[in-house]
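Practice problem: predict the structure.
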Amino acid sequence: MGVDISDIIESKEIDMGNLKNQSIAIDGYNTLYQFLSIIRQPDGTPLMDDKGRITSHLSGIFYRTVNMMESGIKPIYVFDGKPPELKQKTISQRIEKRRASEEEWKKALEMGDVEKARLYAQGSSRLTKDMVDDSKKLLELMGVPWVQAPSEGEAQAAYMAMKGDVYASASQDFDSLLFGAPRLVRNLTITGKRKIPRKNIYREIKPELIVLDEILKNLGINREQLVDIGILIGTDFNEGVKNIGPKKALKYIKDYGSIENLMREKSIVIDNLDEIRKIFLRPDVTENYRVEWKDYDENGLMEFMVHEHNFSEERIRGAIEKLKVFKKVRSQKNIDQWF
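Answer:
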């Protein structure tokens, strides 16, 4: 789930229209997991085609991307590469957690507790290589660009934003800020009404914008110190220090200036400190990416979505009409102003 610094971060709720004409680099893996988690049947069963292949991620990628494009947003998906070695423990823990959630999902189904079944089912989502490959294929058929990161997708997206090639990075995690993204957009791909677990209450979810410079100014720290706060709390690359949350970590770093100074004064030990900092401050990213928008392939989309994966022909055609509008706007004479 990344570093949780939500208690010390202020975000501004925005509308999709506030991002019109902007390119947004979207954390692909983070987004696909969202789709696999929330796009399910009432009992938690994911969407599937007639061959038993899960299609929840394809539904999310297609319809949510079309909706963003209809709002004038230019999404660019960024996919993870090889994870850093320090992430292996976190990955193993996540695999075990998903296995346990799957077991609880099955038990809830046997008991006839549909709401509990759906809750556990959301935590059991697994993202396979075939799912990622199919998602990339779908994006290509839509004419939407994607970038393959050498390592962490969020680091690559943040790098693209720092270079000015995109307006912001989009993810549910706050890691993008530690990676240096000047702007982070949350909830971009999950806008709309969502049911609160175990309650018959729905709440409206809107996009949120977080500006790094504003956050650092308000907290009275620099980015390196924000990274140190994350390390104290715990990241995907370390467990953090017991009994230290975001507010205490912030106070410590403001009082002592750095983790080294804190370690000299307190009985705190953090292994691999320099290596963890390097992951955030000098991440493994590539400059050799190309963001190129192409025309959508109508026949290819119909074949892939309708004939191969059993999506509704009427709904797919309706979404393609929206892609036609996007193409028309993109090809207008004043294209440079729109982009």
